[in-house]
Amino acid sequence: MMLIPAHHFRDIERKPQYLQPEKCLPPPQPRPSGAMWFIRDGCGIACAVVTWFLVLYAEFVVLFVMLIPSRDYVYSAINGLVFNVLAFLALASHCRAMLTDPVKTCMAVAFTSLGRGSSFPEKLDRPVSGHGRHLSGAVPKGNATKEFIESLQLKPGQVVYKCPKCCSIKPDRAHHCSVCKRCIRKMDHHCPWVNNCVGENNQKYFVLFTMYIALISLHALIMVGFHFLHCFEEDWTKCSSFSPPTTVILLILLCFEGLLFLIFTSVMFGTQVHSICTDETGIEQLKKEERRWAKKTKWMNMKAVFGHPFSLGWASPFATPDQGKADPYQYVV
């Protein structure tokens, strides 16, 4: 039996030396219920700190360089309120994206049919429907032990995918993250700026993060433009509580930061929305994986990420998406 070409990226998982459960150590103790999800990666933590620093820097310049010294109190009050609300939502979205387990309750196993005469576990064909245990959170590390596989009570001709890197039973549409050191279902990419993988359970918060960062960047650029015009028309010593050279330097740095992040987050926001509408992650698009899951409308895909039904909660990082009757684990076989 020949392997399906679309599955070539899993060839390493089909080699007997990687699929022997005897080589897996007993899995570590699961995280206690309610434990906070946090990736201990030095680079990711540094990027997250830099993200907060840049937002707080923009907050400082907007408030103490442009708005508070302004004599137009209505202008200052309205723009200060809008900018602070957007900045707060951006940071809240960042926290939710960083501290949320990227995988929700998922099928722990993906069954595969074998042709007659095939021996376990060398020759695999396309996945078929089957029953499996449900696990909450990221795919448990090291659960592909002989005892656990036997406890699944697989029928003859059914095998499971196994990740050779984290020694775990690998569900469909899952990919191994070398930073998180786990298999993440519907993993789009690992983002160092949120120090976490972007998966099915935190994609909403990542999309909101990029959207709010783009909005505050655009808002800051507009205010910088108006402030420069105002300072050119009047005396520079009266349009800011700082000296003119310091004011110019702070505004130019904010302008550069705002322009850079406006472009970056706008592109990320667009690619994420496109990925959600097509129900295809960035990794699946990159690897051109064969589509084996049921095709849904763009609106249904949006509701699967942001929640059922449509509401203002879509724009809130504090609202956990309600999946309703959506079945994100329906596959075409």
Strand order in the largest sheet? 1-3
What percentage of the residues does DSSP assign to strands (E)? 5-15%
Oligomer: single chain
| Count of β-strands | 10
What is the gyration radius calculated from CA atoms? 25 Å
Alpha-beta content class: mainly alpha
Low-pLDDT runs: 1-19, 106-137, 326-333
Coarse shape: elongated
Mean pLDDT: 78
Structure annotation, total helices: 9
Helix and strand sequence? HHHHEEEHEEEEEEEHHHH
Our measurement of the CA-to-CA distance between the termini, rounded to an integer number of angstroms, reads: 18 Å
Main pleated sheet: 2 strands, antiparallel
State the helical fraction.
40-55%
InterPro entries: Palmitoyltrfase_DHHC (IPR001594), PFA4/ZDH16/20/ERF2-like (IPR039859)
Domain Palmitoyltransferase DHHC: 162-288
Enzyme class: transferase
Main location: membrane
Description:
This protein is mainly alpha-helical. The protein is 44% helix and 8% strand. The radius of gyration is 25 Å and the shape is elongated. The N terminus and C terminus are likely disordered.
Summarize the structure.
One of its GO terms (cellular component) is membrane. The chain is mostly helical. The chain has helices at 11-14, 16-19, 42-67, 73-99, 146-151, 203-233, 244-278, 282-287, 298-306, and strands at 106-107, 111-113, 134-135, 158-160, 162-163, 168-169, 174-177, 182-185, 189-191, 196-198.
